[in-house]
């Protein structure tokens, strides 16, 4: 913050005394000739100034005028030479910049930037002080401040790239404290404050680097660039020039940058390399390197290439009065003022520290291209490329600040004891004391402590500005931060404008007083009220963004009440002052301090009845108000002391009150409510009646003083009641809910529409309880607009469809089909309101004394004269009643055509008192009846009463329509002496729908709902039957039988049909019902209960439930009836009570039911009308034969009993099992008697030892056994030894998948993660003895004894032996030496996995669980082998057979022993042998000589050279004996025995039960403790290749006579060969590093091999080894094998995710590497899968955000994003879907939308899925694929009615025959799946009609 601008004189003095020297670049070393004073140029080097001498004089004169008056008086004007000398000396004064090399006289002062010498084009270094929405504030050198517009903060070329940034762009690109290089655009006057100037800057690099070219850029130079775009491997940079670009690798960015770079952001970096071909500069942004990098002394560098912030090596040239002069880069000079020296606290002797020619580092602070002046800084913080820290706060007071230096006539340098580190501060002479003319050197001494207050801070200079004036420590406000809303302040008026006044506090802080706050009343001339210079008292209204607003209203200034300055301060009962902001009909909006607002409703304004709000209050008026509530904003009352009422006297929601009208407004009526507490009431126009037309009519007759007797309290707002006069609500008060807990599901209640939106309708009840009816539930016809059916305020009946107690939401249905009226309240409301309107209307006509004549009531005969004849009837006038008119319709004229003026006698059928109209009839049946009644008045009254008594409520009658009125019908009842009745033609929810057309004379069926009484306005009210039951009958047809249809009513019904599960009956007039099979007998279950009934039989039944619509039929609804004796004989129930079924069951309870459905897996039972049960196939029997005939064993209608396993109260369903069980079995689940559980994985009916049925689910490979299904979602495992009773060679051969089996439960265990493990056995229930007891299974290791004979199956084979399964709990091991009495040529082949073996127990270790078995018949065989080996000695000649031929020799079995030896290829013949396979075959006979016997390792070396037998056999027997082997099988076997390890050997197939399966099974076997092979040398696998062996063989022949010399070498090779022998004899997967090395050498491009190698290293706990294997794989796999490389990368990523430290960083680095080699999309998807598998949701979210930006046109990526959002953030799905539609190609939009819709369906949001499909079908109505997918999703949901409606739409379109065939086929299959034959025939018929139509 710059120091106070008001002290311009202080600045002028500083400028005058610190006149900058024109120090620029150093002069060349060669001295220039001396010049005279007149000839000395103003700018010594680089040419003359652009300004003339006169212009310079004007500038200096302007500077002089700003000096202090005393200072000006001391200056005398000089003339002649003295004047010239003064002008020359002023060249060195402050106010001009010196910028070239100096020759001759040096400048006195260092360059200093001021507002006077700032000019466009200057380059400055600054630090960002503020980041605003539209601009940046930059702190510049010398305490100046500049502004950067948003358009100048970013390159225009990058503007499009940063549009995606959310929020403020500037705040995303810049931060406070950031160092920036900027260019001055202009300096102009501040429009808001005169005398101030604004500096406009630009941060655009195109201005800063305009002179740069690629040739000017050198390595090691520090450059600033904008991030142009973000790529996978780094950032593309923009330097502001088109000639070259830059690149910043991401690796260096991650290592050095603390924050993540975004597009448009500034970044500094060091040039690492330059690609001049591609014109790319590569940077490194390591902060340490950037901060230490020094600009090199480049040859020919110009001033234009220098940028502020660059660091240079400099040399001190001289010291100046206020700084030092430096030379740098050979040719340039610059100055450093003493506020930018190395020492932040330079004392008076600071010049001693800076000796001439001393080398220092400095950074460029500013550059003036016009004067070529350069300013430098040596500030230690800036040298480190960091802004000086701000350790102090403006306004803080420091009591003990130390004086460091006293500058005469300038000020004091202080050391502020700020936290962390001292801060330098400077106090100018004008801020030292209040008085003038103080001598600093006399009053202050260096080292003394003084008291100082911080006035401001120069961010770039790191210098605080202070004040020591005594007045500065007074007053509560010093800075904007000290201002608090509501505080009282004293301020001086400094300016008065038309809209406000500017006032200034004592500290200089300014505020605004708006015009409306200058006084309590409106003032026209503010300058008379406020005079400049006047000091007044104000109160602060608010302070926002340093804009302070105050008020001078006396009431507010002098108020002693609490201040309300935040919403948190508002508490109920708080009394405070505010001022009115807005007035309307509802009330007043009141403003408080700091922008807080509240609302006072009209009822709380304290107004008199009929008083207008604007007449009492006006805007800006100060009011005292009380806070009444803070729940929904701040609610206020102007009534400060409300009347306190007891709890009994308080009005509650749902109360019925009365009131007197006070004021009638266009939309609302205000009343005084007749209750205690002087309550006010409000009725909105739409609440005056249930009928919209009557509401307007009622409002038109209401006048102040009218009383409304019955009003319902809908809501309470403070002292105001929201009322309703709707009869429907008042009549239904007991049922109206005020809270969600009072709502019952599926109940029908009355309410009113409070709001309409496009997607649905909001219905409100009492208080704020509101429900929502979606569009699909609000309309029976979906093609109708909601606004055409409903209106705000409409009375409606609604059905509660769904209750969500957690969210407090109600879902309603407004369909007429489910909400139709069951009484005549709608019509009753109409007539009562009509009476009220007429009464109010007549009360206003008291002067005429008009009252309705008694002779003009319904049924009376009147005489009148025809005054006018019209087309549709005649108008009648009455002589006695001139204000009443009559009307006779053409139907009521009975064909007569009376003339005008004639007199007629007619009967009144209807009366409209408010319209003064009566409807008459001339029909004789009415006239004769009425005249006869009139002549016998006494008798007629009795007769009328008798007739009415004969009419019963709820009786169904046939009526004839006499008159069709607006909204209702006038009917007569011919069967009841033509009694007149009235029936509504519409209903609550159908007020705006086009009504059914009725005509006079039409016969209808109706139900009597109310007899004539005062509550019905003396009318007989009826309710029409539904439209399908409105019939026309002849007058001669007899009346149908009477019927009553209340729930609980007894009816006489006739059986019309007998179905397996129900009786169909008819009763009454057109009513149908059904008797469920469980409603026949009181006993639990009776076999075939319908057998005693026949069609046509009459029964007595009772209605027990509302109508239900039968499935798969379009017929009307059926009543639920019961013929149980106990129900029929019971008392009749009331109409509102429905016989409910209690869901009172418990787990384990025995129940019975009737079968109503059988499928392949389940039997479905009906336990009662609502409770269903199901039985799973495997719970129905144990025997496989019974399970195979499952569907045949149960028939529909049969009885079935079982035990409850689980219950679901919501679905009213049970799951049964056939056998009893303990509810606490196994102790796994505790008591389950009364809990409600899911039936998916119930196991408490499975008990150890139990027997049940099962089904083979899967046969596992090898000896894994099999999985058997025992429940719907339960599977048990059968161990390999538990498959058969006896030990057989292949126990799995008798089983196949899907086979039913009888199994025994051995054990049931529950794991920690919730999984259930079940062990089963398929053996007999007790071990059978077959031959001997040894065939039984060993269950415990303690049962084993030494030498016991046992059976087992081979589990796995290893080089050291094998493991066998003795039972499901016990395994045993067999050493290789104990596999057979003889030699085992191929253990893998002779002992395959699963082979049955029989052996003897050698050892048992019960503690460790280890068992060892031998398969040898003779237990002493192992010793015989050792004895045989001892019989051999070196030199013996033996005979034997060739066992195997290998490239390096022959393996020979020695006769009569169990021994075998190796004859190396070099020992076979004295001559070279090319190919051993050509000369030897396995099985051939040979003679050999024993060369070596190793008893420790059991190895024998043999030799077959002829020379070995010369002495023993002679030359004739020198050749070996070889028997030819021609058997092809032996040859094939020999070739198969060759040791070849290839890729195919390693990639085992699971189906074959191969070595990989053996490895998996081996993982569960403990390792062998006894070492079968004592030596496993790693080097034995580095076998010599064939060529080396041949060479060695040939060299042996050549050195035949030197055999002894080679003996030692032979022995060393023999060691290698013997060690490799054992490995090459077996065929197994690699288990050592060397074996893996062989495999990867043979298959170097197989990712499978490399990944297995990595797994092996991890199994050895060698993580680094696994990493090295991965690195080798990536280098080894051929570059063309993209997928193989990708597999390794993915495995490597999984490795780092699990073992990286930290894993997140390790994965990120590896991922960046992989991007350089792999397909980007595939790799991103693999990484996403990794994150999802490991549930790293945050990382997955971030990755998906990147992917949708990077792969905008990939449908798969967008779908993955949508899928993730549906699980994690469903609210953001719509926004993301819109983004995807804008990015995807057009041809993928339909596929994308359909997939999104499917995801919506699968995630439980079918409504959204439907809306997507509907939108697509509107655009593509004939796309078969869309219809197919849409239908599939709906079929999965199972809403049959909706599915059929969808099929009807699809098959009604005009599409090609091929598409229509597909749709009809799909429709037919759907109906077949439901099994409704009528619907199937319907679809077939419709298809035929389509074919016929298409053919025509």
TrEMBL record:
Give the span(s) annotated as Disordered. 1-90
What are the BP-aspect GO terms?
A: rRNA processing
Its Gene Ontology molecular function terms? RNA binding
Compositional bias of type Basic and acidic residues: which residue ranges? 51-71
UniProt keyword annotations, A-Z = Acetylation, Coiled coil, Isopeptide bond, Nucleus, Phosphoprotein, Repeat, Ribonucleoprotein, Ribosome biogenesis, rRNA processing, Ubl conjugation
Q: What is annotated about its quaternary structure and interactions?
A: Interacts with NF-kappa-B p50/NFKB1 and NF-kappa-B p65/RELA.
Name its species: Beta vulgaris subsp. vulgaris
Q: State the function annotated in the UniProt record.
A: Essential for the generation of mature 18S rRNA, specifically necessary for cleavages at sites A0, 1 and 2 of the 47S precursor. Directly interacts with U3 snoRNA.
UniProt-recorded name of the protein: Protein RRP5 homolog
Source superkingdom: Eukaryota
